[in-house]
Predict the 3D structure of the following.
Amino acid sequence: MLASAFVILASAAAEESAFLRLACTFQLLTLSPYPCLSLSSVASLITLEVKTSRRTLLLNVTPEVQQIVSSSAIASGVCHLYVPHTTAGITINEADDPDVARDIEATLDRLIPHKGPYKHAEGNADSHIKASLVGSSATVLIDNGRLVLGRWQGIFFCEFDGPRSRHLLVKLAHDP
Amino acid sequence: MLASAFVILASAAAEESAFLRLACTFQLLTLSPYPCLSLSSVASLITLEVKTSRRTLLLNVTPEVQQIVSSSAIASGVCHLYVPHTTAGITINEADDPDVARDIEATLDRLIPHKGPYKHAEGNADSHIKASLVGSSATVLIDNGRLVLGRWQGIFFCEFDGPRSRHLLVKLAHDP
Amino acid sequence: MLASAFVILASAAAEESAFLRLACTFQLLTLSPYPCLSLSSVASLITLEVKTSRRTLLLNVTPEVQQIVSSSAIASGVCHLYVPHTTAGITINEADDPDVARDIEATLDRLIPHKGPYKHAEGNADSHIKASLVGSSATVLIDNGRLVLGRWQGIFFCEFDGPRSRHLLVKLAHDP
């Protein structure tokens, strides 16, 4: 259907999207089935738009990331995941039983309570701290055109100050 | 001894090893001295098999990862480490005094107790949470054919639901 | 101006600086405005020297890392950050309000107290544990010759056993 390069525009949720300069240099197929995500790309730098529905939420974005990999024609390489926010992060954990994500959320909320004796005055100091514990970047391997994930693993965007419109950056690099 | 490429088979610990398709494209020497580890490879994607002996255990795998780097003939690049499990992770810390690893294990067990008010019904919710805090991926630099590690640093496979047979994926990428 | 390889020595300025002799294999411009950091490079592997002033301290090193990227002539690629210490780490979080860094420091000190029932006898077991929670490596994307950071994001060297002289390794890799 798609003969060459296409631009799929994210609705460019203002605030943190300065890095978005949209000029897709490889074919991206439609991302239809995932209403919470839209997609854009800068060369091999792809921006997934993520909409979160709660203050603390681990959202499984594995199908969207896999679709980017599948659309890229990269057989072997790495997939860098990067969250350009200071109150959100990225983790890889069990995607089969959603209770695992709920337990991670609850434990982070227990260890780092929303209301604490924090200095940061915006009411989301806990969100920042959670983001640093979980981390802003992760690297997943690509082999045979697929993400190399363990049987139970999924990629989770970690919202700690939602609900919000967020971005997840995906950068693919084929083997040199 | 080894004239060219060889396949060194991991005993393919069933469960999470579907991604293993063994076809070694560069020479791997024997990994004899480490009884807890065996080795396999897909192109530059290597799978180390790790056997853990306790429920919570940080296992130093630095010699095995260094051996993969040394066998690869990559002088300069990066070494991606990836754990394809949801109740295990990877960290880098002091390898000189084993008490440091014991303190990390004990502190994680204190902060995230085995038995808690968790939703996940399999009795290892804490293991999943620990895995997300420690992380599933790490990237170590390669220079002069060696891992660039600090004087006291070692690479630790982090078991949080052992004892088990586990895998650690090692992907080397030379500089472009 | 610079025809080939050069060694650029930052002058050991002010409260936070020191040495590092190296052989620069690509052009590095002056590193003027940052008295706390000096710079050296081996091929594309750069070592930033960081001086920390407190036991627990998140130090914003974004300008120095950006300067390395800007000096490299890499338009598109990735920037690997690596801390070769066992009681320090790297994180990405808000650089606008310094209270956020203070809250992260305080929360880590609360969760993992300096004095605890630790086995490691050097009095810094907590520092090691904090390092593993925050992590030793991070990967930031490069696009249009700039670090791709969110609007509020900065890169923080995380000192957990200061004050000390430390190193942060920066490895740039352009797209293959």
User: Anything to note?
Assistant: The longest strand of chain B covers residues 165-174. Residues 1-38 of chain B have pLDDT under 50 and may be disordered.
